[in-house]
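Here is one chain, start to finish.
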Amino acid sequence: MTPGNPTEEPGTVVETVRELSGDFLTAVDRLMPQLSASADIPTAAQLEELIDSPATMLFVARLLPAGTIVGMLTLVMYRIPTGLSAVIEDVVVDEAARGSGAGASLVRAALEEAERRGARHVDLTSRPSREAANRLYARLGFEQRATNVYRFALH
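Its structure:
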C-alpha cells in the first residue's frame, strides 16, 4: 500500500491498496461481515484481481498512531459512450471506529481520484436504513437522484 494524501480528519490517513498484505487481509476478514451478512469474504485471488484491475481502486483508512485499518472503499471507473463513469462501492467502517472521520476521509479520497482521472460525477447507492451513512453522503455534497435502480438476479 502506498500512502495517499493526508486527510483533513485528524488521526486518519487513507491509502490506496497496491498489494496484498497481512494487515489488509485481516481487515477484510473483519470488515466484510459488517458490510454484508450475505456476501462471501473475498479470497486473496479475488482481492488480487481487484487490485490489478485498471477499473477498480481499493482504499483503506487507518487510524493513527497505531495504523490499524478501520475502513475500506472501492472506486470503480469505466468508460462508456457518454464519458468516464465513477461509482463508489462497498464502503465500510469498523463499528468501533464509526464517527472517527474515517468514512469521510475514504469518500473524499475516492472523489479526488475520480476527479483527477477525469470523471464528471461520482455515483453511489446506500440503503435508507444506513442513516448515518446517508447523512455523511449528503454532508459531503452528494445529491439524491430521482431515478429507479433495477437489479436482475443471475443466481
